[in-house]
């Protein structure tokens, strides 16, 4: 658990902002689940500092209506990006200013909202709707595999060091990746995940990985070579020399 002064100040800011959002009494927000790295760390593992509040909402989420609700509630929200389109997942991203401090907050329509039920967990002096570790683990796998429902394409997969770091911690502290995939309540596109992992720009993620503030227990995973080898081992693959093999695939062990 990380308890330095900066982290504690961040936690207070997160709690204050969460309290403001809960006080709106908004029917849309009342359904939201806090997911992502902040939920994983603050509600369950305490493995690293996570800054943003990411709220996932069921299909039918109205991003424009949420922006209006925030304004009407007197919350200082600066919109940075909004998607309100029937053909896409609706999203609202921006920053809430509280006592001259800014916190990034996102609201995202989620096709997998009902895969895992909501649970109430402590969040400082508050409680928050989130998911158990399995639900948050599933979402981390999806960040790498992308939004596709099958095949080996990883369209839309995110390439962030913090997601890979979280996956390593989850695979060690909760359940290895492949057995967890097999435990999911639907056929997970494991080939898309494998290819997403293989196509990570590992060298470019080095600096971001080193900037993660984490519990001393997990510091080994801030080394990019260690992290890559550990995650490749999880999927039965091995690292390869990019000069001997073309990029874009996994070499099986």
H/E series: HHEHEHEEEEEHHHHHHEE
Helical residue percent band: 40-55%
The CATH class assignment of the largest domain is Alpha Beta
Largest sheet composition? 5 strands, mixed
CATH architecture of the largest domain: 2-Layer Sandwich
**pLDDT averaged residue by residue:** 91
Strand content: 15-25%
The count of β-strands is 9
**Uncertain segments:** 243-249
**What structural class do the secondary elements suggest?**
alpha+beta
Q: With helices defined by DSSP (H or I, 4 residues minimum), what is the helix count?
A: 10
Q: Which strands sit side by side, in order, in the main sheet?
A: 1-2-5-4-3
Rg, Cα atoms, Å: 19 Å
Kindly report the CATH topology of the largest domain.
Beta Polymerase, domain 2
Shape verdict = globular
How many distinct domains? 2
State the separation between the terminal residues, measured CA to CA: 35 Å
């Amino acid at each position: 658990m990380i308890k330095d002064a900066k982290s504690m100040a961040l936690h207070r800011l997160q709690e204050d902002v969460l309290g403001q959002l809960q006080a709106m009494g908004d029917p849309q927000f009342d359904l939201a689940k806090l997911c992502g790295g902040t939920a994983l760390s603050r509600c369950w593992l305490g493995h690293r500092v996570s800054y943003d509040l990411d709220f996932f909402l069921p299909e039918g989420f109205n991003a424009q209506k949420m922006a209006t609700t925030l304004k009407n509630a007197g919350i200082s929200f600066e919109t940075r990006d909004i998607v309100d389109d029937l053909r896409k997942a609706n999203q609202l991203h921006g920053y809430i200013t509280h006592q001259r401090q800014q916190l990034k907050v996102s609201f995202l329509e989620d096709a997998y909202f009902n895969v895992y039920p909501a649970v109430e967990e402590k969040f400082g002096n508050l409680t928050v709707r989130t998911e158990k570790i399995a639900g948050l683990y599933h979402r981390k796998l999806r960040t790498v595999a992308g939004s596709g429902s099958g095949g080996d394409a990883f369209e839309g997969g995110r390439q962030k060091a913090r997601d890979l770091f979280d996956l390593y911690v989850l695979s060690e502290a909760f359940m290895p990746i492949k057995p967890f995939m097999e435990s999911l309540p639907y056929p997970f596109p494991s080939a898309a995940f494998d290819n997403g992992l293989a196509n990570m720009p590992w060298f470019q993620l080095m600096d971001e990985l080193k900037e993660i503030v984490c519990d001393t227990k997990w510091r080994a995973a801030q080394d990019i070579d260690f992290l890559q080898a550990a995650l490749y081992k999880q999927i039965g693959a091995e690292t390869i020399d990019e000069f001997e093999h073309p990029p874009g695939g996994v070499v099986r062990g």
